[in-house]
Specification:
ABC transporter involved in vitamin B12 uptake, BtuC; 81% helix; mainly alpha
């Protein structure tokens, strides 16, 4: 069954959503969307470093993504607003990566596959990587759910309860870094943050509790993945962007539903 490329694509998308669903909920609550973008953009620099030093692509991506997470956490611990710094780091790393790739000796690179992903080319080893990373991230979120939630709602309350909000923020940042590293081949650097944000925002429209939103984000991601892959197969459209468009349509439908319920 795993010889069918569409089955492998679907399994990869399902595994990815296991991590991006609950993680995306925290990204929305903490307003970390820009950090997700910056980490995804920096992944291209990781690809370039991996090619230059003959490292596995995932390892190079993970190193740069973790470096980005540590830098942003350090800026926030100093009480600085990281928005401007993230802009410099994000576009600087993306541009540096694109330039560095051109110096990779004897390497021909399909940049589109790293920017937009190629979920239809997922292999069995990719499935193992994606599911391993997703289960690690999901497991950590479940393990530290109450601590992460309290530190997301109020840093002061978290500190009063004996928690370290900076440490909890770093855990989430590392989770984003790991998700970016394992999902680069599936949805690409430019679309991975969309998989974090859009399903979470869609689930937010029909959720009343944090747990509902986290689980709903996973379900929306699964629905978007299935719908996007089906549309890609029938309409011959790019699979990654098709998944994102489907997620965006679900968000619009849920938003209209919420507006109608609120008005009545």
């Amino acid at each position: 069954m795993l010889d069918d490329f569409l089955v492998r694509s679907g399994l990869a998308a399902v595994g990815l959503c296991v991590a991006t669903g609950p993680l995306g909920a925290f990204v929305v609550w903490r307003r970390m969307a820009y950090f997700g973008d910056a980490t995804a953009h920096a992944a291209i620099l990781g690809v370039a470093l991996a090619l230059l030093f003959s490292l596995p692509i995932t390892l190079g991506t993970l190193i740069v993504a973790v470096a980005m997470a540590l830098t942003v956490t350090w800026l926030m611990a100093r009480g600085e607003t990281p928005d401007s710094g993230l802009g410099v780091l994000s576009f600087g790393a993306l541009s540096a990566g694109l330039v560095a790739i051109s110096f990779a000796p004897g390497v021909r690179v399909d940049l589109a596959s790293y920017l937009f992903g190629d979920i239809l080319a997922v292999t069995r080893s990719d499935l193992v990587l994606v599911w391993s990373g997703a289960l690690v991230v999901a497991g950590v979120i479940i393990w530290r759910w109450s601590k992460l939630l309290l530190s997301s709602l109020s840093r002061d309350l978290a500190a009063a309860a004996g928690l370290n909000p900076t440490r909890e923020g770093l855990i989430l940042s590392m989770g984003i870094a790991l998700v970016v590293a394992v999902s680069l081949k599936i949805v690409g650097a430019l679309l991975v943050s969309a998989m974090l944000i859009i399903p979470a925002m869609a689930a937010r429209q029909v959720s009343n509790r944090p747990v509902q939103m986290a689980i709903g984000s996973v379900l929306v991601g699964w629905a978007a993945s299935g719908g996007g892959l089906y549309a890609s197969l029938k309409l011959d459209t790019p699979a990654g962007p098709s998944i994102i468009v489907t997620a965006a349509l679900i968000f619009v439908v849920f938003s209209l539903y919420r507006a109608a319920v609120t008005r009545n």
